[in-house]
Amino acid sequence: MAAIIRRDSLAISRAVVFAMVLREMQVRFSSRRLGGVWTLLEPILHLVLMMVVYAYVRGKSLPGMELPVFLLFGVLPFLTFKNISLNMMEALEANRALFAYRQIQVIDAWAARFVVHFCISASVLLLVGLVMAFWGGYDLSIHAPLEWGLTWLVGLALAFGLGMIYCALAEVMPESKSIIRLAYFPLYLLSGAIFPVWHLPAQVLDWMALNPWLHVIELLRIDASATYPRIAQVNLVYPSVWACATLFIGLGLYRARRLHMMAA
């Protein structure tokens, strides 16, 4: 008679998240024609369009960093953080039927969506970076790799925390989804993803620095290039505090509302 293998809760959670990651990848890449190709092409086309527009309006050079590299380290990271948060917000509707299984929790759906969209974004960043480095001849070496990686971790933690809060808010007020999506357009403009902020007046920068994404985007460029201009308003402490606060609030909301989320 075969022995029954009992797994601890951590092993069960790993297995559940892995299975849900496979499911999310299958749904995303097979839900429409050329789904896998379009998933990779969509942010690339967005980046190319911004390069064309920016080069036409301002020219092809920027102090401290070449224009394509400037947009690569601004547009793609912001799209990564945005997509993680907004797709976590939709995790309840997409996985409602799975919550009937006792082993599957809402936080597993969040983790699966986080992993999927991070892997997609990392693949796009790597693919575009290789093309720009080998065929375009751009210098993509990272000046401060440890600081650059730490900035990415802070941005991802902030995106995950916001995703939990958005999901909890959308469960109570479904109409808030539209407002949250619309809010990312001004955030996109105010985060410095598509234009350099260091030439703006100090009074304007003081207000823009209230946006934690501005700090993350600018630090990714500063850590990538030793010659990129640094502004006094930017630091890693501010977005780190935001990340810790959103994670704390998000986990608190999950603790208080998890049964309602699974039963709604």
Automatic annotation (TrEMBL):
Key word Transcription regulation present: no
* Protein localization: Cell inner membrane
Topology within the bilayer: Multi-pass membrane protein
Q: Per the record's keyword annotation, is Cell membrane included, yes or no? A: yes
Q: Which Pfam families match?
A: ABC2_membrane (PF01061)
What sequence ranges are listed for the domain ABC-2 type transporter transmembrane? Answer: 17-222
Name the residues that span the membrane. Answer: 35-57, 69-89, 110-138, 150-170, 182-200, 236-254
Q: Which keywords fit this entry according to its UniProt record?
A: Cell membrane, Membrane, Transmembrane, Transmembrane helix, Transport
Highest taxon in the source lineage? Bacteria
Q: PANTHER family this protein is in?
A: INNER MEMBRANE TRANSPORT PERMEASE, TRANSPORT PERMEASE PROTEIN
Family to which the UniProt record says this protein belongs = Belongs to the ABC-2 integral membrane protein family.
Q: What is this protein called?
A: ABC transporter permease
